[in-house]
Write a structure and sequence with these properties.
alpha+beta; Lipocalin; 8 strands
Length: 131
C-alpha cells in the first residue's frame, strides 16, 4: 500500500515538473551571457535562432546564424526540462561539430555548447522565446 502511494506520488511530481518547465517547441533567440558577446568586424553582435519541435522525447529543428550558417539538429532528446542535441556545420576548415545541452525554464532556455561531447565547460547562452 505504501509502495503504491509512493509510486503514484513520484509519477505526479514528475508530471508536474514537466508542466512547469514549459514547452521547448517554438522559435528561440540565442543571446550570449553578460560579457561573452562576440562582435563582428563591423561592431554588430552575432545572433542565432533555434527553431525546435519535440515529439515524445525526440527533438528536431534548425539552428540559424546568418544567411549562410544554418545547421540541422541531430541526436536531439528531451527529458523533463532537460534537452540536448548536436549540430554539424561545414566551414572553410572542414566540418565543425557542436554539442548542445540545457534546460527549459518557462520562456527561457539556459544553454551550454562545446566542441567536445561531455565537456564540463562550454559557452553559456540564454535563449528567449521569440514573439
Amino acid at each position: 500500500m505504501i509502495l503504491k502511494f509512493l509510486t503514484k506520488s513520484a509519477a505526479v511530481l514528475a508530471l508536474s515538473g514537466m508542466m512547469f518547465a514549459g514547452s521547448i517547441d517554438g522559435r528561440w533567440k540565442l543571446e550570449p551571457l553578460e560579457g561573452q558577446a562576440k562582435k563582428s568586424a563591423k561592431g554588430k553582435s552575432h545572433t542565432a535562432t533555434l527553431d525546435l519541435k519535440s515529439s515524445g522525447n525526440q527533438l528536431e529543428g534548425t539552428l540559424s546564424a546568418g544567411k549562410k550558417r544554418n545547421a540541422t539538429i541531430e541526436k536531439g532528446t528531451v527529458e523533463g526540462n532537460n534537452f540536448s542535441f548536436v549540430t554539424k556545420t561545414t566551414t572553410k576548415k572542414g566540418e565543425r561539430i557542436q554539442y548542445w545541452k540545457g534546460t527549459v525554464e518557462g520562456d527561457q532556455l539556459k544553454v551550454t555548447h562545446s566542441a567536445k561531447e561531455g565537456a564540463k565547460r562550454g559557452q553559456s547562452l540564454i535563449a528567449k522565446r521569440a514573439a
